[in-house]
Amino acid sequence: MRMKHTNWLFMVALAAVAVLAAAPAAFAEDDPVGTGALFDVGMGARALGMGGAFVAVVDDANAVYYNPAGLALIEGRSVTSLYSNMMGAGSYFGAGYAQKNVGAAVFGLMSTVGTTDEFGNPTGDLDYREGTVAGGYARALGPFALGAALKLYSQDIGTNRGFGATGDIGALITLPSLAGVRVGAVARNMLGTVKFESGHQDDFDRSYVLGLSVKPLKGLILAADYDVTHSTGRVGAEYRIVDAFAARAGATMNADKQYGFTAGAGFAYESFRIDYAYQFHAELPDSHWLSLGFSF
User: Fold this and answer.
1) By C-alpha distance, which of 134, 35, 127 is closest to 94?
2) pTM score
3) CB 3.0 to 4.6 Å from 186: which of 67, 125, 136, 150, for a disulfide?
4) Would you give per-residue pLDDT tens digits along the chain (296 residues)?
5) Quick check: 100 and 75 in contact, CB under 8 A?
């Protein structure tokens, strides 16, 4: 079972450390590493630049990841992607598509680590792969929207492979008469386990998250999320200064009073978008995230 009460901003570092430090041991003992850690990383530099406070924003192709209910409010068609080099430890990637009521995404982590014998001598390389394919559907009923997403998960550590399926359920209420207020809620990883070839089984980590967003001024979005399960709070802001440029910032705090901060920017030209996010880490190298998007 993966770690609890961990600041989500540090989940990227956690995943990298798990790959670098635990994967060789897992290979030897036929045990899995950090099942489903990538579910807490993120899906889009726009959302990451806002501290991950996106449960009640979800107005683009990232909706299937953060809150599938947002798919009911998508206008047109939206495509997005995400990439980071994971502080040099590996590659994290994602891609998503959404149109009204329907969305899909794929995201994963890839890394290669060195293995050693009991004396510390190099013995070769070990490939680590973790990935998910997700699909979501949502419907709006007046100001209310309900949605669900199915996620197929896999993890591959050398000769030990694991597969499983889980799902999310989300809700969203839009109150345009109150400065564009949105209230969202999502229950993540509600069912399922991962079964490994070694015979080991690992439950997915359930979480319940509440979200609020508001548009007090033209071009400005303020958002806040609270992960009830892990006692983690996130706040974020996006200000679209002009149609072609948006500035973002965010912060998180977990139950251990660990803080994290983010910053980001978005650039648009006609139907194309480039988003960048920077995550500040207290002890490990900071993270850089890049997304390319297209709307039609």
Assistant:
1) 134
2) 0.82
3) 67
4) 333 333 333 333 333 333 333 333 333 334 444 566 678 788 899 999 999 999 999 999 999 999 999 999 999 999 999 999 866 667 889 999 999 999 999 999 887 766 677 777 777 777 788 999 999 999 999 999 999 999 999 998 777 889 999 999 999 999 877 878 999 999 999 999 999 988 889 899 899 999 999 999 999 999 999 999 999 999 999 999 999 999 999 999 888 888 889 999 999 999 999 999 998 876 667 889 999 999 98
5) yes
